Each structure stands twice: as structure tokens, then as C-alpha cells.
Amino acid sequence: MMLHTMKARTPVRLTFIRSYATRLPERPPYRAPDPLVNNPNAVYEELPGDLTFIHRPPPSAASPESYTTSPASPLVMPVKTPAGATLPPSVRKEKPAPPRMSDEDLARMRELRAKNPRYWTAGKLAKELNCSQLFVRMMAGLKNSEKKAALKKRDEEHQRFRSQWGEKRVMNQEIRMKRQQYW
């Protein structure tokens, strides 16, 4: 009968254990030397109130082209364009200016809008008279009471359609409204 004896393990040194760096090595931040200290050309002048005025002359003489107020400066000279140069084509086609609306058309627009604002909306009048909706609203706007009535009617119609929504759509709409509050 053979007995097996186990060999004793050799102690493992911690230097041989594999590990990873806890952070990447960084270079220390650059600290530029102070240009005012030990400058042989600098002139120091003590001022009252514990202040020091330091004057350093520029490192080299400025060229005449560097002055923007100099008449010889290229920065002040106007840009030269050749006489025969043509411009590139425009990106969009130019719209013709809308024709000026006559006083008769303005009076007709106001009259139609005042008679039946529910039928003659700003959009219908704009198509009828070939102008913008903004122009119609500016020239033949509704009274505040009529605006409120129109908005109330629109909101009732919207509410009627919302009542037909399913549970999922209602929930999604409520989530959108809640998200919009935090904008």
C-alpha cells in the first residue's frame, strides 16, 4: 500500500500576481514659467497702494502693415472685384413681389370676415385674395370674443376625438405632456 504525500506549496510572492492599473498615468499639468520674472527688458515701477506697474517693450518692432489704422494697411483697403466678374446663380428662385392689395380688396376682405368669420377663415380669404394668412389676420382680425369662441369650439372638437382614444394612446399622450413640462 502506497501513501501519497502532498508537496508543500511554495509561497507566492505578491509581485508575480497579475493585476491592472486603477487609473491611467497622466502627465502633470504644464506650468509655464512667469514671463514677468527675471525679464531683463522689463521696467518695474512701484505705485502707491502696494501696486507694481511692469512695462515690457515688444519683442520686435511692428511692421507698418500690422497697423489697421495705417492707410497702407491691407486690412483697411477695399476688396477689389474685377469689373467683368459675375455672381454665382442664386440657390432659390426669386419669388415675385406680391402685388399691393387695393383699397377695394381690403374693404371686401374686412366685410367678408365680419359677415361670417366661421366660413371666411384666414386661410380661405388668403387663397381668395392671393395674400398670406398673416396679412389677413393683421388687416381683418377677429374680435377677442370671436377668437375665444372659435378656440372653444376647436377645443371641444379636439376633446370629442380624444374621448375615442384607446388606453395606450391616452397614456402615451400623458407621458408626452409630462415630459414637456420639464423642458
Automatic annotation (TrEMBL):
Q: Which organism is it from?
A: Hermanssonia centrifuga
- Pfam families named among the record's database cross-references: MRP-L20
Indicate, by first and last residue, each region the UniProt record lists as having compositional bias (Basic and acidic residues). Answer: 91-101
Q: Would you tell me the protein name for this molecule? A: Uncharacterized protein
InterPro entries per UniProt: Ribosomal_mL58
An annotated GO cellular component of this protein is: mitochondrial large ribosomal subunit
Annotated region Disordered: where? 54-101
Q: Under the GO molecular function aspect, what terms does this record hold?
A: structural constituent of ribosome
Which segments show compositional bias classed as Polar residues? 63-72
